[in-house]
Design goal:
Largest sheet: 5 strands, mixed
Shape: globular
Radius of gyration: 13 Å
Order of helices and strands: EEHHEEEEE
Structural class: alpha+beta
Mean pLDDT: 87
Strand content: 25-35%
Low-confidence stretches: none
Distance between the termini: 40 Å
Strand order of the largest sheet: 1-7-6-3-4
Number of strands: 7
Number of helices: 2
């Protein structure tokens, strides 16, 4: 089984408005909404270290979502600096 990796930041536009299913897709942890439904319902997704089975759970800034060895953190887009000049 692969070692868990450090979470990468995924910037979102507004605080407290992204749901778990949407975030999984935005973070490229899954490919489709139907896949999100499957992995969440089967208990494969952790939010802040705890199993989450509600695809509609609202995430807030700093929440860490883990699927297998991959992990992504909800980050504030307004304070996100990707290092690009535009």
């Amino acid at each position: 089984m692969p070692e868990p990796v450090e979470p990468f930041d995924v910037p979102v536009r507004e605080e407290s408005v992204i749901r778990l299913g949407q975030f999984l897709k935005l973070a490229n942890l899954i490919e489709s909404g139907s896949q999100a439904k499957e992995v969440v319902a089967s208990g494969e997704v952790l939010v802040n270290g705890e199993v989450e089975t509600r695809r509609g759970r609202q995430l807030t800034m700093g929440d860490v979502v883990r699927l297998g060895p991959q992990a992504a953190r909800v980050a504030d887009e307004a304070s996100y600096d990707d290092g690009l000049p535009w």
